[in-house]
Specification:
It is built from 16 helices and 32 strands. The structure holds oxalic acid and manganese (II) ion. Oxalic acid binds next to loops.
Amino acid sequence: MSQTVPDTTELTSYDDIPVRGVVPEHAALRAWVREVAALTKPAAIEFCDGSPQEWQRLTDLLVAAGTLIQLSPQRKPNSFLTRTDPDDTARVENRTFICAPTQAEAGPTNHWVDPTQMKQTMTPLYDGCMRGRTMYVIPYCMGSLQASHPQFGVEITDSAYVVISMHIMTRMGAAVAEAMAATQASFVRGLHSVGVPLAPGESDVPWPCNPEKYICHFPQTREIWSYGSGYGGNSLLGKKCFALRIGSVIGREEGWMAEHMLLLKLTNPQGRSFVIVGAFPSACGKTNLAMLQPTLPGWKAEALGDDIAWLRPGPDGRLYAVNPETGMFGVAPGTSDETNPNAMAMMVRGNSIFTNTALTPDGDIWWEGMTPEQPEHLTDWRGFPWTPRTGVRAAHPNARYTMPMDQCPVLAPEYDLPDGIPVDAIIFGGRRPTTIPLVNQARDWTHGVFLGATCSSETTAAAAGAVGVVRRDPMAMLPFIGYHVADYLQHWLDVAAATTPDKLPAIFYVNWFRKDADGHFLWPGFGDNVRVLDWITRRIEGRAKAVETPIGWLPDPDDLDVAGLGLDADVLDQLTRYDPAAWAKEIPLVEQWFDSLETDGKHIPDEVRAQLDRLRAAVNG
Ligand code: OXD
Ligand code: MN
């Protein structure tokens, strides 16, 4: 339970600022809170405890403010809809900065500004930015508090929406504060403000945000400064900012990897389990795959995570994966009883936040693709009346659900293991209508790193910008690597060198999104993706046939279980064929891509370049 008595001995200089909650016994945290409060000048300070009472109080407050709409308790208990400002609906990659000491350290895939200069730019923005608002202090831990290396963060924010989202997405509150205090643990400092101070008597808008946005990372000092946006990936600083961008830098220093990956446990009809992690660019179906409902009899899939995996070599020489988050912040449109029945079951249990979905007249949510028929009347994501004839989308294409992981009906029991679970396979993927086959196994780890480095996809609505353009996305980490991409590829090789080579996961590349000349998908996807995973696991066991080609091992079409799909032989052939003509066109693009990464005197690792040379020789050969 929170206490409302201020800790006056520690916060005497803020006698005029009311303090709610228990002030953690952590000297560096107290000093930092003091410093931030002096700069941002909030009306009140709240130390968050993560309790159900806190959730209740803040959701009540947000409902009263018009930020949240309470959904029908019968349909979605303890759940809320929020509508963002129409200009604050996605991550803003063009406003995301890696403020490493030098541009060379940030590399060509990041926006870079000198850290001192960025702080000079942002400090005046933060000056007084929380006037009239409450400043919330959220101690949180990415990964288990019992982990051998717990990763602590503290987010200071002026958004109660962020606090309740962090309740779902992270381990946070009193227990974390106590654990931090026990060892005076170091922590990642995240400062977030929506950038809309309130003058005395000025009323607030439901979704305050500032047209000027900055999402800044200072990897050397383990700091995140986020300003102007309330949207998830920009404002829930434990997620992309800490667990991926800062995490990738910490991982490089400490010998582990922070990756944009789902985690899945798959058990075959013989009872053998496999752990598969998968890197796919945003909005390529990671969440659906994480909660796969297999269509092949006898298979069982259990979810461990949908977005981020931390991979660390274990004492036995294997690579162990943990999901550092406790919730799913998934793309809602397209989610249905057909595409992701487990996500649908998860949200019926309630305790969730929906962002920019449509609202039904009976207080439930709806989005495109949820039901075969469109409802006759809705309120769209901007709050306007909507009918199927309105001619606009009812839900924003990047509408999201935020749901607690432990409500997943197929949650793997190993989900909470403090130091994770050993990985059997890594899969990379993307949306490519042509060229890339349905599945392809890397010859070895280095070839797998090459495949990951060339990952590419058509862009989607998860980030602001043009949709449908092919962009390279190495390991699906393009917007999330916190340092030079060439060093990142080298780190993949270095981590492998620190493990036992024959215990490394096998690497595969998949493409569920092949299309025919008329633009129709060739592969059914979703639950039928288990047919590909079946082949992958049989490859690991040495039980599946494959054909060696210059791009890797492709399935023998006879050995892919497509029973009942009604695929004609020609389609199966297109899906599993190595097409030299298409690859002859792809190679110069990969080459150009690699060249573009070689900045600041840094080079793609020779071993990875050699893979391209080998491919070129084979294709031209
Ligand atoms: C996400 C993303 O929000 O990758 O997970 O954009
Ligand atoms: Mn993601």
